[in-house]
Protein backbone atom coordinates (compact mmCIF):
# COMPACT_ATOMS: atom_id res chain seq x y z
CA UNK A 1 0.00 0.00 0.00
CA UNK A 2 2.85 2.43 0.83
CA UNK A 3 4.33 1.80 -2.61
CA UNK A 4 1.02 2.73 -4.28
CA UNK A 5 0.72 5.89 -2.18
CA UNK A 6 4.27 6.91 -3.14
CA UNK A 7 3.48 6.34 -6.81
CA UNK A 8 0.30 8.45 -6.63
CA UNK A 9 2.18 11.26 -4.86
CA UNK A 10 4.92 11.13 -7.49
CA UNK A 11 2.31 11.48 -10.26
CA UNK A 12 0.21 14.21 -8.62
CA UNK A 13 2.90 16.54 -7.28
CA UNK A 14 4.52 17.50 -10.59
CA UNK A 15 1.10 18.41 -12.03
CA UNK A 16 0.19 20.44 -8.96
CA UNK A 17 3.49 22.31 -9.06
CA UNK A 18 2.94 23.16 -12.72
CA UNK A 19 -0.39 24.84 -11.95
CA UNK A 20 1.29 27.80 -10.29
CA UNK A 21 4.23 28.03 -12.67
CA UNK A 22 2.42 29.45 -15.69
CA UNK A 23 4.54 32.59 -15.85
CA UNK A 24 1.49 34.67 -16.76
CA UNK A 25 1.71 36.84 -13.67
CA UNK A 26 0.99 40.44 -14.68
CA UNK A 27 3.50 41.96 -12.25
CA UNK A 28 6.34 39.51 -12.87
CA UNK A 29 9.68 41.31 -13.05
CA UNK A 30 12.43 40.40 -15.50
CA UNK A 31 15.37 38.29 -14.40
CA UNK A 32 17.41 40.19 -11.81
CA UNK A 33 20.18 42.22 -13.42
CA UNK A 34 23.83 41.90 -12.45
CA UNK A 35 26.86 44.06 -13.12
CA UNK A 36 28.88 47.01 -11.98
CA UNK A 37 27.29 50.24 -10.83
CA UNK A 38 27.86 51.73 -14.29
CA UNK A 39 26.39 48.68 -16.05
CA UNK A 40 23.28 48.72 -13.89
CA UNK A 41 22.89 52.48 -14.39
CA UNK A 42 23.18 52.04 -18.16
CA UNK A 43 20.32 49.50 -18.11
CA UNK A 44 18.01 52.21 -16.73
CA UNK A 45 19.46 55.07 -18.82
CA UNK A 46 21.07 56.84 -15.86
CA UNK A 47 24.31 58.79 -15.87
CA UNK A 48 25.44 57.94 -12.30
CA UNK A 49 26.69 60.78 -10.08
CA UNK A 50 29.19 58.78 -7.98
CA UNK A 51 29.04 59.72 -4.29
CA UNK A 52 31.01 56.85 -2.73
CA UNK A 53 33.75 54.88 -4.47
CA UNK A 54 35.16 52.50 -1.87
CA UNK A 55 36.21 48.87 -2.06
CA UNK A 56 33.17 47.57 -0.15
CA UNK A 57 30.51 49.92 -1.59
CA UNK A 58 30.01 52.12 -4.62
CA UNK A 59 27.08 54.51 -4.45
CA UNK A 60 25.66 57.00 -6.92
CA UNK A 61 22.72 59.35 -7.24
CA UNK A 62 20.65 58.76 -10.36
CA UNK A 63 17.95 60.76 -12.06
CA UNK A 64 15.74 59.31 -14.80
CA UNK A 65 12.32 60.09 -16.19
CA UNK A 66 10.88 58.05 -13.32
CA UNK A 67 12.51 60.22 -10.63
CA UNK A 68 15.64 60.28 -8.50
CA UNK A 69 17.12 57.44 -6.49
CA UNK A 70 20.33 56.09 -5.01
CA UNK A 71 21.99 53.08 -6.66
CA UNK A 72 24.57 51.16 -4.62
CA UNK A 73 26.70 48.12 -5.39
CA UNK A 74 28.51 46.00 -2.83
CA UNK A 75 31.60 43.80 -2.94
CA UNK A 76 29.99 41.13 -0.73
CA UNK A 77 26.52 39.78 0.01
CA UNK A 78 27.21 40.27 3.72
CA UNK A 79 28.08 43.94 3.22
CA UNK A 80 24.86 44.43 1.29
CA UNK A 81 22.75 42.77 4.01
CA UNK A 82 24.43 44.82 6.77
CA UNK A 83 23.77 48.01 4.81
CA UNK A 84 20.12 47.05 4.28
CA UNK A 85 19.67 46.17 7.95
CA UNK A 86 20.95 49.59 8.99
CA UNK A 87 19.11 51.44 6.20
CA UNK A 88 15.81 49.82 7.23
CA UNK A 89 15.58 52.32 10.10
CA UNK A 90 15.25 55.16 7.59
CA UNK A 91 12.16 53.79 5.87
CA UNK A 92 11.81 54.10 2.14
CA UNK A 93 11.55 51.56 -0.65
CA UNK A 94 14.37 49.29 -1.72
CA UNK A 95 14.86 47.29 -4.88
CA UNK A 96 17.32 44.54 -4.04
CA UNK A 97 19.40 42.50 -6.47
CA UNK A 98 22.53 40.40 -6.04
CA UNK A 99 25.09 42.81 -4.56
CA UNK A 100 23.12 45.92 -5.52
CA UNK A 101 20.31 48.08 -4.13
CA UNK A 102 18.25 50.95 -5.53
CA UNK A 103 16.66 53.25 -2.94
CA UNK A 104 14.01 55.88 -3.51
CA UNK A 105 10.31 56.60 -3.49
CA UNK A 106 8.11 53.56 -4.01
CA UNK A 107 6.89 54.65 -7.47
CA UNK A 108 10.46 55.19 -8.68
CA UNK A 109 11.76 51.88 -7.34
CA UNK A 110 8.74 50.05 -8.78
CA UNK A 111 9.49 51.50 -12.23
CA UNK A 112 13.13 50.40 -11.92
CA UNK A 113 12.03 46.87 -11.11
CA UNK A 114 10.50 46.61 -14.58
CA UNK A 115 14.00 46.99 -16.04
CA UNK A 116 16.34 45.58 -13.37
CA UNK A 117 14.26 42.83 -11.79
CA UNK A 118 15.03 42.28 -8.12
CA UNK A 119 12.94 42.07 -4.99
CA UNK A 120 11.06 44.92 -3.36
CA UNK A 121 11.69 45.63 0.33
CA UNK A 122 10.20 48.38 2.47
CA UNK A 123 11.99 50.03 5.36
CA UNK A 124 10.17 50.92 8.54
CA UNK A 125 10.44 54.61 9.33
CA UNK A 126 11.00 55.34 13.02
CA UNK A 127 11.02 59.12 12.68
CA UNK A 128 8.87 61.82 11.22
CA UNK A 129 9.73 64.56 8.80
CA UNK A 130 11.70 64.40 5.59
CA UNK A 131 14.71 62.54 7.00
CA UNK A 132 16.96 65.52 6.43
CA UNK A 133 16.82 65.21 2.66
CA UNK A 134 19.83 64.53 0.53
CA UNK A 135 19.19 67.14 -2.12
CA UNK A 136 18.69 64.45 -4.74
CA UNK A 137 15.21 63.22 -3.86
CA UNK A 138 16.55 59.77 -2.96
CA UNK A 139 14.22 59.37 -0.02
CA UNK A 140 16.59 60.99 2.48
CA UNK A 141 19.18 58.23 2.19
CA UNK A 142 22.19 60.37 1.43
CA UNK A 143 23.45 59.90 4.98
CA UNK A 144 24.15 56.24 4.37
CA UNK A 145 27.26 57.05 2.38
CA UNK A 146 29.03 58.55 5.36
CA UNK A 147 28.63 55.45 7.46
CA UNK A 148 29.31 52.89 4.76
CA UNK A 149 31.75 54.55 2.44
CA UNK A 150 34.92 54.88 4.46
Strand order of the largest sheet: 1-2-3-5-4-6
Counting DSSP H or I runs of 4 or more residues, the number of helices is: 5
- First-last Cα distance: 65 Å
Write down the Rg.
20 Å
Task: Give the strand tally.
Answer: 6
Q: What's the mean pLDDT score?
A: 74
Q: pLDDT below 50 for ≥5 consecutive residues: which ranges?
A: 1-24, 126-150
Shape: globular
> How much helix is in the residues?
25-40%
Largest sheet: 6 strands, antiparallel
Structural class: alpha+beta
How is this structure best described in words?
- Residues 119-128 have a biased composition (Low complexity).
- The structure is a single chain.
- The chain has 150 residues and is α+β, with helices and mostly antiparallel strands.
- Helix content is 35%, strand content 23%.
- The chain has five helices and six strands.
- The protein has helices at residues 2-19, 37-43, 77-87, 106-116, 144-148; strands spanning 49-53, 57-64, 67-74, 93-97, 100-104, 119-122.
- Strands 1-2-3-5-4-6 form a six-stranded antiparallel sheet.
Short summary:
Residues 119-150 are annotated as: Disordered. 35% of the residues lie in helices and 23% in strands. It is built from five helices and six strands; from the N terminus they run ααβββαββαβα.
Task: Compile the SSE list and pairings.
Elements (H helix, E strand, L loop, with lengths): L1 H18 L17 H7 L5 E5 L3 E8 L2 E8 L2 H11 L5 E5 L2 E5 L1 H11 L2 E4 L21 H5 L2
Amino acid sequence: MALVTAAVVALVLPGAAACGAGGDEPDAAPETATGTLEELAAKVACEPNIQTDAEEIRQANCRTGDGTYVLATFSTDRGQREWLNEANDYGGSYLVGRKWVAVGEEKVVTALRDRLGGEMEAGSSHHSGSGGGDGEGGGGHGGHAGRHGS
